[in-house]
Amino acid sequence: MERFRIRSDMRQNQKCLAARAIAHVGRVRFGLIALSAGALAGCGANGISGMHGTGVAEVANQSPQEASANLASLSDVVSRNPRSSEAYDTRGVAYAKLGKYSEAISDFSQAIKLDPNNAPAYTNRALAYRQSNRNDAALADFNRAIEVNPRHAPAYLGRANLLRVQGNLDEAKSDLDQAIKLNPENAQAFHARGLIYQREGNQPQAITDFDNAIDRDPFAGAPYLARGQSLIATGKYDKAIEDFNAALHVDNKNPDAWAGLGLAYEKSGNRTKAAESYQRALTFDPSNGLAKEGSSRVGRG
């Protein structure tokens, strides 16, 4: 998942008030968006300082009343600091996390109007454009973010993911190389680059990148799923089974993880567990192609 970003140079009183509101807005499980832990740094009075993107509430569990209260707090920051680019950027992140992309884009645009060199605001607006299927506008904003700050790693990551889904693998890989150079601890960049190597058939390099992603963020499920797929491709079925199980520990309703587990069991000769896994995948996604094909091969085991 890519992250909406918030500038770290926001004045302390603005940042702490916004952080308390955003901490309740929390993470999102859809699309590409997750809360940037950097937005919460420096507000240690409530134990916020030192968080690394964990411990925040799920949007799915948040009432409309709570969401409105959080936005009201952020709107208060904006009203008291109407010339603050960072205040609009922060509220835009909160809107985006609630799926209100039009409002988010409006706030990011105002942040950019107030500070045309606000690279995080360009990156955030690009991510919101992507969620709105406005990829041309997103690419233009990623380009502009890099233009105003060539060391802004999230813009390279965001642009790379857009280029990757568009099939521009060489350009995407170049951007990911730069993102990793600028921020060697970015698990998402290693995961994204691993997906490119995987697509190119370079499974050993893909596995190395997935290893690096997992080392940096062992609680994300996607790199385990991806590594399991590459391990199957290299004939390491027992290790693949471990990875698919790890992905299922993160999300036990992931049909792709169940289908991958089924294939790993099938390849290792355990048709009974393969059949069970394929059926679990089809329970969550009846149209899952891998599970349908596998189930037809192994039957009831």
Automatic annotation (TrEMBL):
Keyword Calcium attributed: no
Ranges occupied by TPR repeats: 85-118, 119-152, 153-186, 187-220, 221-254, 255-288
Transmembrane segments: none
Pfam families: TPR_11, TPR_16
Coiled-coil portions: none
GO biological process, one term: receptor-mediated virion attachment to host cell
Protein known as: TPR repeat-containing protein
